[in-house]
Amino acid sequence: MKTLAITFDLSLIDHYTLVIAIAGYCIVLAALAFIAYFFTRLHSLQDFLTKRRMVVQESISKEQKSKVVMTGEENAAIAAALFLFFSELHDEEKYVMTIRKVSKTYSPWSSKIYGIWNTMKHW
Amino acid sequence: MDTLQTLFSLWEDTGFHNASLGNLLMILVGIVLVFLAIRYSYKPLLLIPLGMGVILGNIPFLHEAAYHTGIYQEGSVLNYLFFGVLKGIYPALIFLGLGAMTDLSPLISNPKLMLLGAAAQVGIFATFLGAMVLGFPMAESAAIAIIGGADGNTAIFLTSQLASGFHGSETGLAMQNLIGPIAIAAYIYMSLVPVIQPPIMKLLTTKKERLIRMKPPRTVSKFEKILFPLFGLLLSAFVAPASLPLLGMFFFGNILKESGLTKQLATTASTILIDIVLILIGLTVGASTQADVFLKWESILIFVLGAIAFMIATAGGVVFAKVMNLFLKKENRINPLVGAAGVAAVPDSAKIAHEMGLKEDPTNHLIGHAMAPNIAGLIGSAITAGLLLGFLL
């Protein structure tokens, strides 16, 4: 192992070294500050655009609402159609359709082939 | 006679014959690193490969032997693996994986926290001047100072370019090979974040400041998440082109993640690839600490300067947060503990800020906020490395 030879010489920091240290730090700070500024502005811009889009959509829907003009006859016709449709319904009606399969077991007592009327026809 | 000579040459070939006190000391250091990792879970993913590498690199062997074993012997297996460190390949691949696993939302949701990551870089530049005063050449001073960035990969990348023993200095002097001491110092300080940072954070903040509650982060749109890596890449590449191998890969990895269309690539980069590279970088950096290269007085100085850089960086982040609070509205104030996360030890320093915040107020969760300066610190230290390379090469 070599012997320790620690120097402490402030004159070793020359002009160029100072420029590297100060300029380097300022550049890093500025670069990250610029990214931060850009994304802060970007968010504000996005907010602004979203709000504007919402305002435009609201105004469009208001315009559409105001454009819908219905006459009394039309209203009456719709109301009558609805009344007739709903009054035809039963009070309680299930909207679910089911098909139940009913199976009957065969029994000679209920047989139509061997029924008494079939036998009488042959007489 | 021949038999005796064969036996003697066999003995000469063994580690027992070639062992030096330095080798044994370094093997002990390797064992301690492995012990710390296993017993106390200090960064086991880093310290186990590193510790095993230190042991591997210090197994004594006959330097004149026909076969090549040592990491500095051309043609040996370790020498080939070390190529990835010397050429800065492994750090770049690790940055790719980091990008693919990092969620930049905390940073985008509160961009002003980025300044804390930039502020913490003061540790690097202050230590650069300090190393110069102590007589280190400029390139070596820059490589030592980057330890203050608290990111081992950036430190290895910069050292491989400036002080790997292959470059000349501005005065015509050959640079020393400082990869081993600088990488070990950076990794050790990264694992010692819970020991180094809290006293500084406590010293520089009042209880009232530590209790500050920050505004919850807003949700971030997919558009912003995709725009950030593109914008960040372009800006950093234009400001410091030499940082491209690190930040180019970082933002590329992040695009893989955020695009949502290359999930398998992002998963591979952030899991399998980064694991493989971690094994290789840990092992080879560890093995580069061969006793004759590592055991120098300069290594001790590097450890001391690295610790100072780390402490200044922590203090820089905390103080800058306090200064920012002077200009911010009450509802936008920053908890200064978050400033300490400006050093790039991801995510350890953010966790420390969170834990310290919880100690003061168990309902004040700072992790979401602390991740922002933490990632900014990573980006900032890579830009700093690029700038230093630009200045010095």
What would you note in describing this structure?
The complex is a heterodimer of chains A (123) and B (393). Chain A has 123 residues and is mainly alpha-helical. Chain A has a domain at 12-66. In chain A, 61% of the residues lie in helices and 0% in strands. Chain A has helices spanning 15-67, 72-87, 116-121. The longest helix of chain A is centred in the middle third of the chain and has 53 residues, at 15-67. Chain A is elongated, with a radius of gyration of 47 Å. Chain B has 21 helices and no strands. Chain B has helices at residues 2-13, 15-18, 21-40, 44-57, 77-86, 89-101, 105-109, 114-119, 122-133, 138-145, 152-162, 179-191, 193-204, 207-210, 222-239, 244-258, 263-287, 291-294, 297-327, 348-360, 367-392. The mean pLDDT of chain B is 90. In chain B, α10 (138-145) packs antiparallel against α11, α11 runs antiparallel to α12 (179-191) and α12 packs across α19. Chain B has 393 residues and is mainly alpha-helical. Chain B has one domain (81-392). Chains A and B meet through α1 of A and α8, α9, α15 and α21 of B.
